[in-house]
Amino acid sequence: MTALRRLTGVGLAAWFLLPLVPLVLWAAADVWRAPAALPQQWGSSGWSAAAAAGGWAAAGRSLGLAAVVAVLGTLLGAAAAAALDGGRLRAPRTITALLLAPVALPPLAVALGLDVLLLRLGVPAPVGVVAVLTVAALPYTTYALRVALAGMDRGYAEEARLLGATPAVVWRRVRLPLLAPAVATAALLAFLVGWSDYVVTLTVGGGQLVTLPLLLGSAASGVGDEPTVAALALSAVLPPLAAALLVARLARGRTG
Amino acid sequence: MLDGVTRRYAVGGAAALDGLTVPVPGGACLVLLGPSGSGKSTALRLVAGLEPLDAGRVLLDGADLAGVPPERRRMAMLAQRPLLFGHLSVLDNVAFPHTVRGVPRRRAHADARARLDAVGLPGFERRRPGELSGGQQQRVALARALAAGPRVLLLDEPTTGLDTGARAEVHELLRRVRADLTLLLVTHDPVEAATLADRPGDRVAVLRDGLLQQHAPVGELYARPASLTVARLLGGRTEVPGTVRAGRHVSPLGALQLPVPVPAGPGVLVVRPELVELVPAGSGIAGTVAEVRVLGARALVTVAVAGAGGTARVHAEAPLGRQPAVGDPVGLRVPVDVRTVVPPSEDGERQQLP
Amino acid sequence: MARPLPRPGTAPGWPALPAVVLVLAVVGAGLVTVLLQALGLLPLIGVPRLSGAAFGDVGRDLGTGTALSLAIAAASTAVAAVVGLATALLLTGRRWLGAAAALTVPVPHLVGAAAMGLLLADSGVLARWTGMAGWPELVGGRWWVAVVAEYAWKESAFVALLVAGALAGRLGPLRETAALLGAGPWRRLRHVTLPLAAPALLAACTISFVYAFGSYEVAALLGRASPEPLPVLAYRLSRSIQLTERPQAAAAAVVLVVVGLAVVAVAAVALRRSLARTT
């Protein structure tokens, strides 16, 4: 029984890690002809090709887009969560359903509609992309912060008031620090929505906003340039991974 | 029967439970009594097979239970929280032990219904556990545990989470359903221990820091605590340090004759407050009332006695309204048979059974 | 006088407004435009005229596309549910497994698609390692294996973390109780673990299913040219230089939304039942 469990555990870990192995190998390969099990020649040609294809600028645009979506998504989500937690909102269930609804809607469908509309209205494409992605991020930020607010022990705030803190001080010194891990998680989720998007940037962006996923998409749909694809793909993994590790550390530091 | 049961949570670290050996006669109740962190709950989990033993054996009717998974030990547990399955109705919770043994649904439900009646909850079958009060939930949990047909019923602080009324109900119920069941009760509450271990063969094992302090009927724990720890755990208050010489305890209270032989050397006299008599000044041991505290229907009177080698404080009880005032001179009478001397260190002698 | 302590019921409701307005504006505008376009009321050239022609023109493609997308979503969600649940149940005491699952969460689907391509293609890493002659057509093949694998891979981690989070701290004591009441490992799984995990599992599977059903890039990159899954069809038609195909693209988008919402509605009913049972 325990041996079976251990074996299953190892198998599952392999399932999660295996798809990332070709990325790492190809990103460090200059020449890797089939059927060799490992590259014949190691090198960084993929990275040079990725940089030459405008990788740095694309990464910068991706970072900017993700940051804007993270800030907007977290702010709007936090405000909505606080309002829902307050209990003075009319029809809170409808509002919750509305804010969570974008999870159930394919972004492509919304993007196809907005594409036509924004063109007619003359709205700049990047604004449209940010708007659609912020809406896509709102379910995650609202939900994460709503849960955190609902789970927050009011005893801390009450204790602080009895110890002489004003409501403003309670917010600054007690509630926000207690909420910090949830805010960080919400921001990370919104960041991931902005950073990972392909189809909305492609459709609504109309080619003006070339992000890392767009570069990767065009490289991957071609054939025979695996090192470049792998280098672009890895550069699209590392920043969100670093952000996730940072948030995980913050959350652990708070609870531990 | 527990034989040398040991559990360490870190390799080479302090044992949560160190070589505990106590017999549990069939049909009797053994109470593991101790403060939190004393290892008593660990002992219960080891008996149940929920945690591995580091040393020792758990024997049931002479058979070693090593390697027997919890579900085959036929030991049901009533824990501090009711732990009812939220996805099942009250009836299905009680029928659970039958369901998982493949008993036909109709028979399982009939038995579950009878058990719900027995714990005083007829008509609650269709309810969800979340709709019940804490006391009701604990009664459902008891019905469910009994439905498993256990040979040993494990009770892990079964009433700690309940208010006074519900606690009395559960105690009453446990005494009623007990019959020939072997009980193993873990508690920090000496009153609970005394309530449930009141039959002739019942015993209490006092634990501290994973070590057995005393194993005796509950009355003996009160009358003859083996150590300061036991005396304190059972609510003893008076502790008079002194020396034992020739069968007498010498202290500011004087040289008091002891009822049983005690080896000579330093020793602490412990006496329960309810057994100390307050008499008018001029008779008994002379002292002055230093403090009076009202404890419900009775008052706790602290009397300072000045004598050779310093001042001793002795606690006595008086009915409310008849207690003396602070500063009054009083006399104390400590009957010979209630005088107990324990070693001065807290651990005392480690008790080992033959 | 000191102001009273902040209590539930005293925080104002207006801060929810910006989020609500943005969602209504973006989703509303997008969906209304798509609907008007699909019904012929918003042509790029010519006179607006109410008509269901756009649906009829690509009716067959819409049918096969919907069926294909549903099949892909169902297959990948089924795999993700089994793998994710197994992972969630084996997480305790295996931090490395949790780390491996969490590692895939920040990976964009497009990166996952590129990785699956490098792994599963006929010149891919697996084919090289196994040295198998006649490697099956996993990328761009008949059975959409690479597409299903990519969704299943990403969503299994999502399912695992969601289910593990929902079970954290609740499962252990109840499983022990079940064991003491005589339930062996399989009975515990069936009567305690699965019912407790069901709501979180159902929610995670619904989100995964709707995502896989409506997402474009993975199927576009790893799938074959024909038949087209619904999102791929919708996107291709929307980029067509023949302006008459734009209403058809909108029609595909409408089907995408309607089917997706129908799935969520069914799941929501099931979830409510399942929650009523566990709380």
Summarize this, please?
Chain A has 256 residues and is mainly alpha-helical. Chain A is 78% helix and 2% strand. Chain A is globular and about 70 Å long.
The coarse overall form of chain C would be globular
Taking the alpha carbons of the first and last residues of chain C, their distance comes to 42 Å
Mean pLDDT of chain C: 90
User: How far is the N terminus from the C terminus of chain A?
Assistant: 33 Å
According to CATH, the fold-level topology of chain A is: MetI-like fold
Could you report the average pLDDT of chain A, rounded to the nearest whole number?
Answer: 90
- For the report, how would you describe the main beta sheet of chain C? none
How would a textbook summarize the main sheet of chain A?
2 strands, antiparallel
Q: Largest sheet of chain A, order of strands side by side?
A: 1-2
Oligomerization: heterotrimer
What is the 3D shape of chain A? Answer: globular
- Helix content range of chain C: over 70%
Q: What is the CATH superfamily of chain C?
A: MetI-like
**Strand fraction of chain C:** under 5%
Tally of alpha and pi helices of chain A: 12
CATH topology of chain C: MetI-like fold
Number of strands of chain A: 2
Subcellular location (chain A): Cell inner membrane; Cell membrane
Family (chain A): Belongs to the binding-protein-dependent transport system permease family.
Membrane topology (chain A): Multi-pass membrane protein
Protein name (chain A): ABC transporter permease subunit
Task: Describe how the helices and strands are arranged.
The complex is a heterotrimer of chains A (256), B (354) and C (279).
Chain A: H1 2-17, H2 20-27, E1 29-31, E2 41-42, H3 45-52, H4 55-86, H5 92-100, H6 107-121, H7 125-151, H8 154-162, H9 167-196, H10 199-203, H11 212-221, H12 226-255
Antiparallel strand pairs in A: 1-2
Chain B: E1 2-8, E2 15-22, E3 29-33, H1 40-48, E4 55-60, E5 63-64, E6 75-78, H2 90-99, H3 105-118, H4 134-147, E7 152-156, H5 164-177, E8 182-187, H6 190-196, E9 203-208, E10 211-216, H7 218-223, H8 228-233, E11 238-245, E12 248-251, E13 254-257, E14 265-271, E15 277-280, E16 285-295, E17 298-307, E18 310-319, E19 329-333, E20 340-342
Parallel strand pairs in B: 3-8, 3-9, 6-7, 7-8
Antiparallel strand pairs in B: 1-2, 1-4, 4-5, 9-10, 11-12, 11-14, 12-13, 14-20, 15-19, 16-17, 16-19, 17-18
Helix pairs in contact in B: 2-3, 2-4, 3-4, 4-5
Chain C: H1 17-38, H2 53-57, H3 59-90, H4 95-104, H5 109-120, H6 125-130, H7 145-167, H8 171-180, H9 185-214, H10 217-222, H11 230-238, H12 246-278
